[in-house]
Automatic annotation (TrEMBL):
Organism, as annotated: Urochloa decumbens
Name the record gives this protein: Cellulose synthase-like protein E6
GO process terms (BP): cell wall organization; plant-type cell wall organization or biogenesis
Swiss-Prot/TrEMBL keywords: Cell wall biogenesis/degradation, Glycosyltransferase, Membrane, Transferase, Transmembrane, Transmembrane helix
GO CC term (a single one): endomembrane system
Amino acids binding Mn(2+): 289, 313
């Protein structure tokens, strides 16, 4: 029988391995040079560095070398997957044998995640090219907002028009917001391959526009008007005593897809649509998104109980209506299917600008690193765009004789006793449910206690013997929203870095937890992200010390005439050139790569530093875990500057910004001061000889920091650096430059 999937290797791996071997040799030479030449004496003397300064360089270079080695794990054997969904269609006799699928959409806050955004995501999920009676969409609302419920109720009505429209004309993408936006920017009335009358197209568009207007106006009023509330019993759940973080559970089935009476405008069945706000009480910890996911798993088990679960964030709409069928090819493939625990799609964004000013594109992670993890055991679970087996995420271990119950959910009857089922589902969404000594959050479901709950959950699934698969089709399956300001980006990365570092330090450390269960290369692959946070310290050292040493006339690298300069130059040039190649071949622009390098430094010296502090203080019990939601809206000025690719620093001040400004100023001051000193002492060529690499390093830092200087001294818009930040940065840098050699 023909396979449903195929796996291919990347080309030219032998060339890559040769390159990697030369870099490894270069790193060894650099470390040897450092270790063999540790100066004696704690003070700078005769132009020699004090020992501690030199040892610091050695430690930093050792660390960078280690990170490089760890990063090789996912570059050694990357694979690419293909699916043959036409064979699946032939084999399943049309649609008869396709398994049921539950789709989870998480939202948490109607202000940073507007209900109209949630609605488009939900509609795109309902409109998959998949039998409607086998699809159920569940929305978890951690904000417990009547506005979100109202928006979903509107969506349940609009779906009757939207779904047949999509089906009939093969619309892509099936998020109405994305579809109508796209058709606007392509400047035709309708995309060429859509053969519908202009009237029909305009009717659907108009009715979508009216719906979003109604949602917007209700959101503006802040409450749902009584005449609307009268139209669905669900609105009466928001009585007195319901606050967003203190309320009883709410479960409302908005569409019962099994009922023959609920059909779209063409008489076809609709997918089931369920709204859930799990119970929240101040005395019970709700465990953020992980808690929401687990409540969804339980609630859905009482309603549709499908064997496969897809989960997406509320901003992540479906951009490809065939993704469910594609994912099913992996689960149903006779050779590998029985082992597959989850199928992960990449995380792609719709709102990136051409040169990706905040380095948010994830292109290299998507095109290289996840493929590399897939080659050595399977990608990590990255929280969104992932298909899980229900049994797997619920905690079952893989065994060769495990048999999936693909019939699960199919036999479910219409929810005749709707009220009873809703009551039962509610009881599964209470706080008390989990506190009666259940395994939820520990052995069962998504794991608690980690800001990257997804990564730790995926690792545990792999350690229970399941494989995972990474599928990156050319038409992107899911598109979400990336942060659009510097502050949001830094906050998001602080959470990522903290989460991954705390995994490394916990009992889930991939080397311990995964030992003997997953391959060493995969253990290392997980570590790449775990090492982000502690990398902040060597990075800060490298950004601060060599420039200051240059200012003080202390050379830290081999002279230009010494052969030892070759490994230093080779390692840096080769790794940068390769990173450029990797970024550009993954879809970044040249400028995008350059912006990414700036963000690399900014994130490492701010987010990751704070993440390190967060992690340690959490381990010492000085603070508790937080999950700061990434806002999906920004004000008009901010969006305009984002479109213009102007970095957003102001107007408020923060520790992160002070660090960014201070390190930028320091490089500039050291470069100028050091050059001035060299010229004044008339040493010219011999200085260039001694300080060549330090000058290159300072120069590169200054070049990447140009937008920071502009924000401090040139720009006049509201996104410029706050004056307070500039003053604080000068206050830090000035003494550091003046104290001079005394401390060295
Ligand atoms: O208490 C909470 C907090 C968040 N969320 C939802 O979780 C999702 C992700 O939150 P977001 O603020 O958008 O985080 P990102 O930084 O974009 O999240 C990435 O990283 C997270 C782990 O840090 C993963 O869970 C996400 O899937 C992944 O997209 C959103 O749908 C939220 O509504 C909840 O349901 N409840
Ligand atoms: Mn997000």
């Amino acid at each position: 029988m023909e396979r449903l999937v195929s796996t291919g290797r990347f080309g030219a791996r032998a060339v890559y391995k040769l390159y990697a071997a030369t870099v490894a040799a270069g790193i060894c030479l650099v470390l040897y040079y450092r270790a063999a030449r540790v100066p004696t004496g704690d003070k700078a003397s005769g132009g020699r560095a004090p020992a501690w300064l030199w040892l610091g360089m050695l430690a930093a270079e050792l660390w960078f070398g280690l990170c490089w080695v760890v990063a090789q794990s996912v570059r050694w054997r990357p694979v690419r997957r293909r699916v043959f969904s036409d064979r699946l269609a032939a084999r399943q006799h049309g649609n008869n044998n396709l398994p049921c699928v539950d789709i989870f959409v998480c939202t948490a806050d109607p202000r940073s995640e507007p209900p109209s955004l949630v609605v488009s995501t939900v509609l795109s999920a309902m409109a998959y090219n998949y039998p409607a009676d086998k699809l159920s969409v569940y929305v978890s609302d951690d904000g417990c907002s009547a506005l979100t419920f109202y928006a979903l109720w509107e969506a349940s009505r609009f779906a009757k028009l939207w779904l047949p429209f999509c089906r009939r004309h093969g619309i892509e993408p099936r998020s109405p917001a994305a579809y109508f936006l796209e058709s606007e920017t392509t400047e035709v009335d309708q995309p060429g391959d859509v053969h519908c009358s202009v009237q029909e197209w305009s009717l659907v568009k108009e009715s979508y526009r009216e719906m979003t207007q109604r949602i917007a106006s209700v959101a503006l009023q802040g409450t749902v008007p009584e005449e609307i509330r009268a139209m669905h019993k669900g609105f009466y759940e928001w009585g007195s005593g319901v606050a967003s973080q203190n309320h009883p559970p709410i479960v409302q089935v908005l569409i019962d897809g099994k009922s023959p009476n609920v059909v779209d405008n063409e008489g076809s069945l609709l997918p089931t649509l369920v709204y859930m706000a799990r119970e929240k009480r101040p005395q019970y910890h709700h465990n953020f998104k992980a808690g929401a996911m687990n409540a969804l798993i339980r609630v859905s088990s009482a309603i549709s109980n499908s064997p496969i679960i897809l989960n997406v964030d509320c901003d992540v709409y479906s951009n490809n209506s065939n993704s469910i069928r594609d994912a099913m090819c992996f689960f149903l493939d006779e050779e590998m299917g029985h082992k597959v625990g989850f199928v992960q799609y990449p995380q792609n964004y719709t709102n990136l600008t051409k040169n990706d000013i905040y380095g948010n594109s994830l292109n290299v992670i998507n095109e290289v690193e996840l493929c590399g993890m897939d080659g050595v055991g399977g990608p990590a679970y990255i929280g969104t765009g992932c298909f899980h087996r229900r049994e797997t995420i619920c905690g079952i271990s893989f065994t060769e004789n495990y048999k999936e119950d693909w019939e699960r959910g199919i036999t479910a009857k219409p929810l005749e006793r709707m009220d009873e089922i809703e009551e039962q589902a509610k009881s599964l969404a209470t706080c008390a449910y989990e506190h009666n000594n259940t395994e939820w959050g520990r052995e069962a479901g998504v794991k608690y206690g980690c800001p990257v709950e997804d990564v730790i959950t995926g690792l545990a699934i792999q350690c229970r013997g399941w494989a995972s698969v990474y599928y990156n089709p050319s038409r992107k399956a899911f598109l979400g929203l990336a942060p659009t300001t510097l502050a949001q980006t830094l906050l998001q990365h602080r959470r990522f870095a903290e989460g991954n570092f705390s995994i490394l330090l916990s009992r889930y450390c991939p080397f311990l937890f995964g030992h003997g269960k997953v391959r060493l290369c995969l253990q290392m692959g997980y570590c790449i992200y775990g090492l982000w946070a502690p990398s902040s310290i060597p990075t800060l050292y490298y950004v601060v010390v060599p420039p200051l040493a240059f200012l003080n006339g202390i050379p830290l690298f081999p002279e230009i005439t010494s052969p030892w300069i070759i490994p230093f130059m080779y390692v840096s040039a080769a790794t940068y050139a390769y990173s450029l190649y990797e970024a550009v071949s993954s879809g970044d622009t040249l400028r995008g790569w350059w912006n990414g390098q700036r963000m690399w430094i900014i994130k490492r010296t701010t987010s990751y530093l704070l993440a390190t502090i967060d992690t340690i203080s959490r381990m010492l019990g000085l603070s508790t875990m937080a999950f700061a939601i990434t806002p999906k809206v920004s004000d008009e000025g901010q969006s305009r500057r984002y479109e213009q690719e102007l970095m957003e620093f102001g107007p408020s001040a923060s520790l992160e910004l002070v660090i960014v400004a201070a390190t930028a100023l320091l490089s500039l001051a050291c470069l100028a001061g050091g050059m001035g000193r060299a010229v004044a002492s008339g040493c010219g060529v011999s200085c260039l000889n001694k300080f060549f690499l330090q000058i290159v390093l300072c120069g590169a830092l200054v070049a990447t920091n140009v937008p920071v200087y502009e924000a401090m001294f040139v720009r006049k818009d509201r996104g410029r650096m706050a004056l307070r930040v500039t003053v604080a940065a000068i206050g830090l840098v000035l003494p550091a430059c003046l104290i001079r050699a005394n401390i060295f």
